[in-house]
Amino acid sequence: MGAGKKRKQRFLDDNPLCFFCGEQSTTIDHVPSRECFRDRVWPEGYEFPACAACNNGAGPLEQVAALYLLMGNHDGKRPTSQFEKLVAGVRNNTPEFLPKLNMSANAKKRALPLYNFPFPADQPIAKAPIAELPDKNRTAFEAFERRLTCALYYRHMGEVMPITHMIRTHRLQAIQKSSDDLIRAVVPMLPNGIKTNRQNTDIGDQFFYNWYGDQATKMFVFMAQFSLSFVFIGVACRPEDMAGGEDYRPHSNDVADR
Predict the structure, then answer these.
(1) Residue 1's pLDDT is what?
(2) How far apart are CA 195 and CA 174, in angstroms?
(3) How many Å apart are CA 103 and CA 112, to the nearest integer?
(4) Average pLDDT along the chain
(5) Best CA proximity match to 219, nearest among 199, 201, 239
(6) Which of 14, 111, 147, 231 is the most exposed place for a label (fewest CB within 10 A)?
(7) Which regions of 82-124 does DSSP assign to beta strands (E)?
(8) How many CA atoms, within 13 angstroms, populate the side-chain half-sphere of residue 173?
(9) Burial, 64: exposed, middle or buried (Cβ in 10 Å; 0-12, 13-18, 19+)?
(10) DSSP state at residue 198
């Protein structure tokens, strides 16, 4: 047995249960997907045990989420060939998730004030680089967010999330003006701050988050940001502890929908 296979087997021996559904793990899954990071250089420590069904079933929607994370990043760096491959992949596999590029000038004019986006005043609004996200885009992001919630729960709570737990997620683009207020309000309530990294490689601020977990009630909350792209919030709790909204959905549905 080669070194890679031995390492995989040791990992699965130490982590025998799928992080998502709790069944026997047979594969190693990266959450967030490697495609979410520039040139697929991902942070260390975000490998999770997974059964084949949970690992393989996430592929197409993870590709969509990765596309929008890279497309929505306003860090000033030029896209790489990876971005072009993601566009081609989504166009081939799930074209209904592609952005709508034919927004009217009036629609762009209404959208611009909502964002911290420095568009030159002497340029026509019609040329503003704004795209409309299709309604189905929510499906891909919700799948991404809920998998991320389960993965971070596993990492920081030290166990598979109970299938009876309820999950609630929310997202904002990082350049939305309302995201600044949300971050200021939420971060002080989540005392554990994590900036992910990779040994001997500077991956920048591509993925960082704050979290809080309560071992007594098994409640878990996090706020994560991907570069200057999107901000995500996830809450996982017992049914009797739900508060603050009616948009919780049972984790058992995630497992059934694999």
Answers:
(1) 62
(2) 17
(3) 12
(4) 92
(5) 239
(6) 14
(7) none
(8) 21
(9) buried
(10) B
Strands (E), the chain: 27-30, 47-50, 166-173, 192-195, 208-214, 219-226, 230-237, 249-250
pTM to 2 decimals? 0.92
pLDDT band at 221 (very low <50, low <70, confident <90, very high): very high
Strands 47-50 and 208-214: unpaired
CA end-to-end span of the chain? 31
Q: What are 190's two structure tokens?
A: 């989540």
> What's the Rg (C-alpha) of the chain?
19
Q: pLDDT tens across 126-156, in order?
A: 888 888 888 888 889 999 999 999 999 999 9
CA distance 168 to 74: 27
Distance of alpha carbon 170 from alpha carbon 183, whole angstroms? 12
Dmax over Cα atoms in the chain, in whole Å? 64
Residue-wise pLDDT for 104-127, tens only, equals 889 888 888 888 877 777 888 888
Interatomic CA distance for residues 231 and 177, integer angstroms: 12
Query: What is the DSSP secondary structure assignment for residue 143, as one 8-state letter?
Result: H
Give how far the C-alpha of residue 92 lies from the chain's centroid of Cα atoms, to the nearest Å.
22
